């Protein structure tokens, strides 16, 4: 075929766009993305890498593996429940469907019965108050850092915030409590010592007018040895006497105590112990979307909600939808992974191990994301050659494993069982490629 004829034989863009399969992909991915894929395949055909008659097949195949965003779904084989680099908590099916419903036009701030404007997030607020009866009111913002920013700006206007030197935490990736509060112009009064703070230290600080007392859960570390801290109950008594708000940041967002994580604070207990405001993240142990949840006293929450910063840190409709669904469901993939039945995990893993002829080893999962620090979650893992980690990470679906002591460990705790067959096929291929 002459060069010109060859080029003419390559299907034109409009002809390809008119193909039903391509038109369907166009509706899902958008014209620009589809045109980009078509152009790439046509270029390959012009270079002679693809026969002109095969262009349509290649376009369809390429569109089938094209996603509308470049975020790649990952199977979390690390055994770490809340993996910050993997977007923390995975949403439940219920939350995903709520997000999908909320993605279009939605009655976010309208009462459809009357057609009159209504308050934002009323159903979410109701769900939170039903789940945590000790709370009088609720406010949801962008994340827990935003909740701290709002609280320290709004309450810090009345005076400095009092905090123990043992709780001036850094969470990671640029989050240092004193720097965050400093950036809001809030003055901090640091009391006590790194390892020991006493009620008398708080009492001395409250001799002067202050904005609030802040108690932080030191999520990602433990102070051990010669230590002393003041409980929420004791602090609440002192703060009530001095009429100073007590704000407790519990970090991980458990709504009620979790027997498997006895040292992890929760909303219900902190409020029952007398905290005026309790703050936490939505995407840690609560297992929902990124959010900052503030529960507590009606008057203080009203004050926060009316502050101008509240508008700058408010949650969007997708978050509101996902969080309501998560709270109402009362369970989440995170909670299920935490409560994984060890026998079931072992039998799934051994089945894969036997099929692939690779050993199964004891492996502790972890809560991660600054929760349940130092608490092992006993389990098992497949022990694979270390060289497998990279191809598994870059495969489809991507599988993230834990590389440790020269091995690649695959822990199924955070992976739904429905993927086991697919994982078995992927591992079998990857092991064959190694040989
Ligand atoms: C994780 C954490 C935060 C930060 O929460 P984000 O939702 O990531 O902003 C704040 N305080 C504590 C105690 C935490 O554990």
UniProtKB/TrEMBL annotation:
Pathway participation: Aminoacyl-tRNA biosynthesis; selenocysteinyl-tRNA(Sec) biosynthesis; selenocysteinyl-tRNA(Sec) from L-seryl-tRNA(Sec) (bacterial route): step 1/1
Cofactor: pyridoxal 5'-phosphate
GO molecular function (one): L-seryl-tRNA(Sec) selenium transferase activity
InterPro entries: PyrdxlP-dep_Trfase (IPR015424), PyrdxlP-dep_Trfase_major (IPR015421), SelA-like (IPR018319), SelA_trans (IPR004534), SelA_trans_N_dom (IPR025862)
Subcellular localization: Cytoplasm
Ranges for domain L-seryl-tRNA selenium transferase N-terminal: 7-46
SUPFAM superfamilies, A to Z: PLP-dependent transferases
Modified positions (N6-(pyridoxal phosphate)lysine) in chain numbering: 284
Catalytic activity as recorded in UniProt: L-seryl-tRNA(Sec) + selenophosphate + H(+) = L-selenocysteinyl-tRNA(Sec) + phosphate
Keyword list, A-Z: Cytoplasm, Protein biosynthesis, Pyridoxal phosphate, Selenium, Transferase
Domain of life: Bacteria
Principal cellular location given in the protein's record: cytoplasm
Record carries keyword Protein biosynthesis: yes
EC number(s) from the headed UniProt entry: 2.9.1.1
Gene3D superfamilies: 3.90.1150.180, Type I PLP-dependent aspartate aminotransferase-like (Major domain)
EC class name: transferase
Described function: Converts seryl-tRNA(Sec) to selenocysteinyl-tRNA(Sec) required for selenoprotein biosynthesis.
NCBIfam families given in the database record: selA
Similarity section: Belongs to the SelA family.
Name under which the protein is recorded: L-seryl-tRNA(Sec) selenium transferase
Species whose genome carries this gene: Micrococcoides hystricis
Gene symbol of the encoding locus: selA
